[in-house]
Amino acid sequence: MIRDKKPAETVEKELTYIQKVWHTVAIVALLVVVILIARVAFNVLLMVLAGTLISTYFHGLGDLIQRKTKWKRKPAMYISVGGTFILLGLLFWFMGANIQKQVKELSDTLPHTVANFKAKLSETSLGQKVLDYTQDDDNSQKLIVTAQHFFSTSFGVMGNIYIIMFLSIFFTLNPSVYKDGIILLVPHDRKELAKCIIDRISFSLKGWLKGMLLSIVLITIMLFTGLTIMGIPAALVLALFAGMLKIIPNFGSLAAMIPGVLLALTISLNSAIIVALIYIVSQTIVSNIVTPIIQNKMINLPPALTIISQVLMGTLSGVLGIILAVPLLSIVFILVDELYVKKINDEDDVRSVQSKPDPTLAD
């Protein structure tokens, strides 16, 4: 029996279809690989930015020492880097025992604090609904998974810190190598623009660092004083915790207030209200003092856009992304302003000049 042979056109169409399917699969696979590489590369970029910020702090402190003492650059930088590590070591040395004691006290008190909070929360119908929702196994598991993902990083926290510290030291020792290397990659007619952008970014990052350091010191001192007067346990640890979380705008202040208010609830409801007011007033005073300093050194970022960038960065890169969301957003604004907005404005100015009639021809 002779089988019917398929026409050549049909065979060619089937081969073309199979080729298209394989091409599509290859493109999708390539996109997935590129996305995965880009995500890892983005986390590396964040670590580079963190190292740059620490290096900017060292150079800013070195500039201050050089202006005040009239010393040469190298001794000023040695004092900046070495003095910072020595100061941190002394602080941990003198405060370490007190901090360890208060951390133990906080860990011993916290279970009773949470139980007391749940008891007070269950007294209202709305509070009971919240407890039922959080105690549900599925919801609890979702919250745990979300928290783990939220605070996860690509290489682990200790690995990231290790890499960031080494990057900051290398950037501090010889910053001109990296700055000139970036400028070398730019076309000759754009080198001046590249220098201008780098200078603007450096100025902006210095302003952000000054504002953050001032915020951390002020909020730590104010909260430690207020919580000590109120007789709240582990006042030093709570104040340091709030100071460290100040580096995370919007969300950090809210997260820092929770353990302090919970501990105050073990004393009385009035104490909890007063402690909450201490947190709110301290944050408000610090924000009103520091915000003008930051706005003078940085681009005035819209609050809603800042929150959106924090949520996006937290989803992509965890806690490191949240911390660096504001300086990264500032860098993006500077790049857009220099590479797009000013170019558009210059073109509009040229068009407006060309459209004006020549007064000499009118005469």
Automatic annotation (TrEMBL):
Pfam families documented for this protein: AI-2E_transport (PF01594)
Organism: Mucilaginibacter polytrichastri
Keyword list, A-Z: Membrane, Transmembrane, Transmembrane helix
Statement: the UniProt record of this protein carries the keyword Transmembrane: yes
Family: Belongs to the autoinducer-2 exporter (AI-2E) (TC 2.A.86) family.
Compartments it resides in: Membrane
Name of this chain's protein: AI-2E family transporter
Gene Ontology annotations for the cellular component aspect, listed alphabetically: membrane
Matching InterPro entries: AI-2E-like
Membrane topology: Multi-pass membrane protein
Transmembrane annotation, as ranges: 21-38, 44-65, 77-96, 150-173, 213-241, 247-265, 272-295, 307-336
GO BP terms, alphabetized: transmembrane transport
Record keyword Repeat present: no
